[in-house]
Structures are given as structure tokens and as C-alpha cells.
């Protein structure tokens, strides 16, 4: 019996270093988990560094971008334009609210309009009080494209511009005067927009006028006095 115990103890002693060596979490060759967030903030929460817009409409307060036409009327839609390099494939997330009898939006894959300061042309994720138009895609200054897809639709558009609605659901009402989270995900000609975590539109755009790269901007709409607010703007570039 004593011999058996002695043998087991000897085996345990010899095996222990090998076991410890195999499971040592401090070894350099152990796999590591990267917890770094690939998204970057486009707004520093303090000022409009990195953005360009008419200062009579745009300001920053308490970590929020404020756009307002309450004091100054705009003759046309005006935008706050992100000055970073143009974006192709990406995932953009932000929180926004719109106050007043009007609407706002987020521009992407857009271009500047020659001869019109702070005007943009391109895709717009709409912030609109009517349920079908909230988080829809509107073609700002994109010729006859206008409303491209409304909330609740999954759609494929062919090269001629013909729309094939794959599925459609009736959208629920959303109070755009409260903070809502908008997401825009673009990969090639496939665009998904989300509202508060739920898919709002799913579009494959094969139209000859489709856009694959461009600028990001925030909109103040002409017409009735309004205020649009934006915060927590984060961008993950998927083409890097």
C-alpha cells in the first residue's frame, strides 16, 4: 500500500509541471482576444471640429449637435458635412431627434452641389414624422429617384430603375421628437438601415444611378422652422 501511494505521489509531482506549462495563461504563445471597438467617433462632443456647415444654423451644447432654423430661415436644405475622407462600405450609428413640423435626415455616399454652399446630393436616411418615411431612403437631388424605398420594405432595383418589392410590412409609428437610434450599413450596392435596432429597409440597388462612395452629412430641411439634434455618431469603415 505504501509503495502504491509513493508511486502516485511521484507521478503527480512529475506531471504537475507539464500540466501547468500547458495551461499557463501568461505564456506568450497563448491566443489573445481583441476587444477593441472598430468604430470611431465622428463627433468629439465639444465642438464642430471635423465638420463644415453654416454657423448660423449649427452649434454644440452638452455633447449634442444642434441644427436650428428657429432664428434664421434657410432658403433651401442645408447640411453639416463631415470633412473626413469619402466613405464606401461602412456601418454608421447615431442618435437623433427632430423637433418642429418638419423633417431631417442623414446623408451618405453623397457629393457636394457645385455653386450651392452646404448643399448635398445623394442617399438620405430620412428622419420623418410619418411612419413609412421614418428611416426610409430618399434620393436628395438624385434626379427623378426621389423616394427610393420606404420603411418596412425589402427591395431589389434593376439597372433600368424598376423596383421589385420582395416583402413589405406595415411600419409602426415613431416619435421623432424623442431620441431614436439610426443605423446605416452599406456593402457594395446592398444597403440596410435600422431604426432602434430593427431593420427598417433592405435594398439591393442596381440602378445605373446608384452610389458606392461619398460624403456623410446631417440635414436641416427648408420650410417650417425646426430643430434637429444629433449625438453619439460612430463610424466603422468596412472597406479598410
Quick structural summary:
This protein is mainly β. It has one helix and 17 strands.
What class would the helix/strand composition place it in? mainly beta
Quick one: CATH superfamily? Exo-inulinase, domain 1
Helix residue percentage: under 10%
Pick out the low-confidence regions: 1-34
**Number of helical segments?**
1
The mean pLDDT is: 89
- Shape annotation: globular
What is the CA-atom radius of gyration, in angstroms? 26 Å
The SSE order reads HEEEEEEEEEEEEEEEEE
What is the CATH C-level name? Mainly Beta
CATH topology: Jelly Rolls
- How far from one another are the termini? 67 Å
Task: Please describe the biggest sheet, giving its number of strands, its sense, and whether it closes into a barrel.
Answer: 10 strands, mixed
What CATH architecture do you see? Sandwich
- How much beta, percentage-wise? 35-45%
Report the strand count.
17
The number of distinct structural domains comes to 1
Features:
single chain, 240 residues, globular, Jelly Rolls, seven-stranded antiparallel β-sheet, disordered N terminus, 17 strands, ten-stranded mixed β-sheet
Q: What topology emerges from the helices and strands here?
A:
Blueprint: H1 2-23, E1 40-41, E2 51-52, E3 58-61, E4 64-68, E5 78-82, E6 90-99, E7 104-112, E8 120-127, E9 137-140, E10 146-149, E11 153-157, E12 163-168, E13 180-187, E14 190-195, E15 198-205, E16 215-220, E17 227-237
Parallel strand pairs: 11-15
Antiparallel strand pairs: 1-17, 2-5, 3-4, 4-17, 5-16, 6-13, 6-17, 7-8, 7-16, 8-9, 9-10, 11-12, 13-14, 14-15
Amino acid at each position: 500500500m505504501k509503495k502504491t501511494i509513493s508511486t502516485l505521489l511521484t507521478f503527480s509531482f512529475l506531471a504537475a509541471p507539464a500540466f501547468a506549462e500547458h495551461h499557463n495563461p501568461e505564456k506568450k504563445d497563448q491566443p489573445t482576444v481583441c476587444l477593441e471597438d472598430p468604430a470611431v467617433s465622428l463627433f468629439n462632443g465639444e465642438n464642430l471640429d471635423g465638420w463644415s456647415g453654416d454657423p448660423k444654423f449649427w452649434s454644440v451644447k452638452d455633447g449634442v449637435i444642434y441644427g436650428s432654423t428657429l432664428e434664421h430661415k434657410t432658403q433651401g436644405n442645408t447640411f453639416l458635412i463631415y470633412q473626413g475622407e469619402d466613405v464606401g462600405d461602412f456601418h454608421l450609428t447615431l442618435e437623433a431627434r427632430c423637433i418642429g413640423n418638419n423633417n431631417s435626415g442623414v446623408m451618405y455616399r453623397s457629393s457636394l452641389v457645385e455653386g450651392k454652399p452646404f448643399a448635398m446630393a445623394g442617399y438620405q436616411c430620412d428622419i420623418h414624422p410619418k411612419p413609412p418615411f421614418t428611416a426610409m431612403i430618399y434620393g436628395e437631388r438624385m434626379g427623378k429617384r426621389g423616394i427610393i424605398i420606404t420603411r418596412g420594405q425589402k427591395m431589389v432595383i434593376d439597372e433600368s430603375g424598376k423596383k421589385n418589392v420582395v416583402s413589405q410590412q406595415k411600419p409602426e409609428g415613431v416619435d421623432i421628437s424623442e431620441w431614436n437610434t439610426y443605423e446605416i450599413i452599406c456593402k457594395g450596392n446592398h444597403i440596410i438601415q435600422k431604426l432602434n435596432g430593427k431593420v427598417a429597409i433592405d435594398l439591393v440597388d442596381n440602378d445605373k444611378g446608384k452610389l458606392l462612395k461619398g460624403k456623410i452629412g446631417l440635414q436641416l430641411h427648408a420650410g417650417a422652422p425646426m430643430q434637429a439634434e444629433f449625438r453619439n455618431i460612430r463610424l466603422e469603415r468596412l472597406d479598410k
